[in-house]
Design goal:
It is a single chain. The chain is α+β, with helices and mostly antiparallel strands. Among the domains are: about 30 residues; about 240 residues, no CATH class. Helices cover about 30% and strands about 10% of the residues. Helix 2 packs across helix 6 and helix 5 crosses helix 6.
Length: about 400
């Protein structure tokens, strides 16, 4: 009887301690308050591959023993994309060496990316004399798999190179050559051997494999079978990351969920959404796109809301950095997706660093930097009443 009583006491004490400890556990944030996490509907096997990619992307930190450098920008993928969100001035990249569509003239001097950090005993790169350059703040990662699956046909349908409808908007795709390790999409549309690219500030990356291989090589100095060139020596060396890891990270990026809008039924948010259309922001920041076929059923034939047309637009002289990639002109920038905008401060130290290089410290400041094809929308914004501006900003922060 005494033994039973002691056993019951131990059980009650254990339960009490468990309940007490659980009171101090952090509360899991709502799904619409975070950017990371898989898209709904993945199979068991797909979830396992997502988790493997998540581990490689967010947990693996490279050292000199595992291939880092000798010159580099970052030591891990997550160091530029905390919580899969936007980067900060500390993680902003410097791209240099191309001024027109003839290609980068400084590849022999370290282009297209500046590796501004180095292991002990090595010297970080410097921007070569006479090379134009631009700063690129790392974007958020979420929803990229949906963007990858927008057809070339749909992208071209949004294009208007001659401004045929006289609305002042003449977006164009960025055509560029494919690297040898990238295969074109099914039903891809080419022009003189070049294909429509869609990722990056200038839309210079074709797909997520292209983007991932470049990031390992140019950001961390890590070679793979897809790109064996060492960024320091220029020599061909053994791969420092496996094909499996590359494919897992690509799958992770493809199957990250899209940002979830918050407070969509709020009257002021709905007013702001209407104003967004009225002042022609939606002419470039297209609210809805659709995916095509995918081997991943959860991504197949979905309508989603990224607020981008994936096209290049003339943004005016003030945003002309004198540097370009692919067929883009120096003053042309790909329309950045606006989804997840309201959560950007979560990964940016509690504040905003917007536009391609983080120069805008608020949404209002970013709007006022629009020129070129964005000038009319900026002027329309300035004509709004303060309450209308507040509604528009509240809508953008809900995305």
């Amino acid at each position: 009887m005494e033994i039973r009583s002691k056993f019951i006491t131990i059980i009650i004490t254990t339960i009490t301690l468990f309940q007490a400890c659980s009171m101090f556990e952090p509360i899991e944030p709502p799904e619409d308050e975070i950017l990371d996490g898989p898209v709904e509907g993945l199979s068991f096997g797909q979830n396992q591959q997502f988790l493997a990619g998540d581990l490689a992307f967010n947990k693996e930190v490279f050292t000199s023993q595992t291939g880092l450098g000798s010159i580099f920008v970052a030591t891990s993928c997550a160091s530029c994309h905390a919580g899969d969100g936007k980067g900060t001035p500390f993680t902003t990249l410097t791209r240099f060496g191309q001024i027109d569509s003839t290609g980068n003239q400084f590849l022999h001097l370290g282009g297209p990316q500046l590796q501004n950090r180095a292991l002990p005993g090595y010297t970080p790169e410097q921007i070569p004399a006479a090379a134009t350059f631009s700063k690129f703040t790392p974007p958020a990662n979420t929803g990229l798999g949906f963007i990858e699956l927008v057809s070339d046909e749909d992208i071209l349908a949004m294009s208007d190179p001659t401004d045929a409808n006289n609305d002042g908007i003449s977006g164009v795709p960025n055509y560029a050559y494919l690297p040898t390790f990238v295969q074109p999409f099914q039903n891809a549309i080419s022009q003189n051997g070049k294909y429509i690219h869609r990722f990056g500030k200038k839309a210079s990356a074709y797909n997520l494999l292209h983007q991932t291989v470049n990031a390992y090589n140019q950001d961390i100095g890590i070679t793979s079978n897809f790109n064996l060139k060492d960024v320091y020596s220029g020599n061909i060396i053994d791969p420092e990351v496996s094909d499996l890891t590359i494919h897992n990270v690509v799958f992770y990026l493809q199957t990250l969920k899209s940002p979830i809008q918050r407070n969509s039924n709020d009257a002021e948010v709905q007013q702001g959404k209407n104003i967004f259309t009225q002042i022609k922001c939606s002419s470039c920041h297209t609210p809805s796109l659709k995916t095509g076929f995918s081997q991943v059923e959860a991504l197949r034939y979905k309508t989603f809301s990224p607020y981008t047309d994936l096209l290049l637009h003339d943004m005016g002289n003030s945003l002309d950095d004198g540097y370009t990639e692919g067929s883009a002109k120096t003053f042309e920038w790909r329309t950045p997706p606006l989804w997840g905008l309201g959560l950007s401060p979560n990964s940016q130290g509690g504040r905003y660093f917007l536009m391609h290089d983080g120069r805008a410290k608020s949404i209002e400041e970013a709007i006022m930097m629009h020129s070129g094809e964005g000038l009319q929308s900026k002027n329309n914004f300035t004509q709004l009443s303060q309450s209308e501006k507040n509604a528009l900003i509240k809508f953008l922060k809900s995305l």
